[in-house]
Design goal:
With 435 residues, the chain is α+β, with helices and mostly antiparallel strands. 46% of the residues lie in helices and 22% in strands. The protein has 12 helices and 11 strands. The strands form 3 sheets. Strands 6, 7, 8, 9 and 10 form a 5-stranded antiparallel β-sheet that branches. Strands 1-2-4-3 form a 4-stranded antiparallel β-sheet, with helices on both faces. A two-stranded parallel sheet has the order 5-11. Strand 3 and strand 4 form a beta hairpin. Helix 9 crosses helix 11 and helix 10 packs across helix 11. This is Trigger factor.
Length: 435
């Protein structure tokens, strides 16, 4: 076998190879002899078919397999000799003008990039700081109360927070438009499910009252045929219902899982859950900055083969997510190309982090994995059950190990970078709109 390597680009390589046809003929003969031991044909006992008939029937198959095996072997030996790390699968290109007695071909493929870890000392990372206090607990309990709101009929005009049941009809240029009419339609004023101008027109109406009003849809309205268009609505309020929030008492505590109805225990549980969530969100924000810092400090090119594979995987994940939401993905085109940018980022980070973990020995220690699993289990009624579940299968434990490795990377990078603390509000950290 002879080989010759060429560099096609930053990561693309071409290896020209030749294999002796005599070696291939020898392998074809060996394969046919093996087939002859077990091949079955009408009129012959198994293993007794004449070699000439076996060759006539199976030589084409045997030759194709022998050539494939020779090419694979030649390529494998070449990349091992040249110490190349192949990314993806090679593209095999046969040569027409081969020397007599040889099979000549080229393998075009990509290699993994060399990752030389860069300096992180100038990277800046902000760590959000938030201490969970009584105000945050009160705000969360208020959210829990609103989630359990019930409505009772109110003999008055509708206002903010009320649920109204209406009939409405919308016309554009005097004609009813599609989706512009409904009967017994409920919505809560101020919840944001309806356009603000529509809500404002209904506010102040009592049951049995009607109103006709003009309205213009926003320019960015999702229905393109209505975006920016002036329409007229006729609305009749059929029922006004006032919101009644549950009191913060034993009944609410029991409804939220505190068996004995102790409100103090409820607040303690809410505080503990908030502290875990605050910690998780702070870690996520720091991790995002760390990943950005790694990408900035370690600019690398990535093999297209790896990006393509990652893009397809992300597309499949998106399809599964849609299916879990009850959607039929055969009716929804999900293209791998949509995820290319995300795939490039993930592949780059995977390569950089792998090199960093190896260079700085940031592997997951058993005690770190155990601590993480036990921490995750704290939000469950029986923490020991979740711990047993994780340790029951290596695949599950592998997921926890991956998280620990990421945490180790984050801790190491923040120790090298310029890290500063930054006090944040509860709403800012949680992504809520300020009230």
């Amino acid at each position: 076998m002879q080989t010759n390597q060429e560099t096609q680009g930053a990561l693309e390589r071409r290896i020209d190879m030749s294999v002796s046809m005599a070696e291939i003929d020898k392998e074809v003969e060996a394969r046919l002899k093996r087939m002859a031991r077990t091949v079955k044909m009408p009129g012959f006992r198994p293993g007794k078919v004449p070699m000439k008939i076996v060759a006539q029937t199976y030589e084409s198959q045997a030759r194709s397999e022998a050539i494939g095996a020779a090419v694979e072997k030649a390529f494998g030996e070449s990349v091992r000799e040249q110490n190349l790390r192949v990314a993806g699968y090679p593209r095999i290109e046969p040569k027409d003008a081969a020397a007599e007695g040889t099979l000549e071909f080229s393998a075009v493929f990509e290699v993994y990039p060399q990752v030389e870890l860069g300096d992180l000392s100038q990277s800046k990372i902000e760590r959000p700081v938030l201490v969970v206090g009584d105000a945050e607990v009160d705000k969360t309990i208020e959210v829990l109360r609103k989630q359990r709101t019930r409505f009772e009929t109110a003999e008055r005009a509708a206002g903010e927070g009320d649920r109204v049941v209406i009939d409405f009809a919308g016309r554009k240029d005097g004609e009813l438009f599609e989706g512009g009419q409904a009967q017994d339609f409920p919505f809560v004023i101020g919840a944001g499910s309806m356009l603000k101008d529509f809500e404002s027109a209904v506010t102040g109406l009592a049951a049995g009252e009607s109103k006709t009003f003009d309205m213009t849809f926003p320019e960015d309205y999702h229905a393109r045929n209505l975006a920016g268009q002036a329409v007229q609505f006729e609305v009749t309020v059929k029922r006004v219902e006032g919101a009644i929030l549950p009191a913060v008492d034993a009944d609410l505590a029991r409804a939220l899982g505190v068996a004995d109805g102790d409100v103090t225990k409820l607040r303690d549980e809410v505080r503990a859950n908030l502290e875990r969530e605050v910690k998780r969100r702070i870690q996520a924000k720091v991790k995002e900055q760390v990943m950005d810092a790694l990408l900035t400090a370690n600019p690398i090119e990535v093999p297209k083969a790896l990006v393509d594979a990652e893009s397809h995987q992300l597309a499949e994940n998106a399809k599964r997510d849609l299916e879990m939401r009850g959607m039929k993905t055969k009716d929804i085109p999900v293209e791998a190309a949509w995820f290319t940018d995300q795939a490039v980022r993930r592949v780059k980070l995977g390569l950089i982090m792998a090199e960093l973990v190896k260079a700085k020995e940031l592997y997951a220690k058993p005690e770190q994995v155990r601590a993480l699993v036990e921490e995750m289990a704290q939000s469950y009624e029986d923490p020991s059950e979740l711990v047993r579940w994780y340790y029951a299968q290596p695949e599950r434990l592998g997921q926890a190990e991956a998280v620990v490795i990421e945490d180790n990377v984050v801790a190491w990078v923040t120790s090298q970078a310029q890290t500063a603390e930054n006090a944040v509000s509860f709403d800012e950290l949680m992504g809520n709109n300020a009230a």
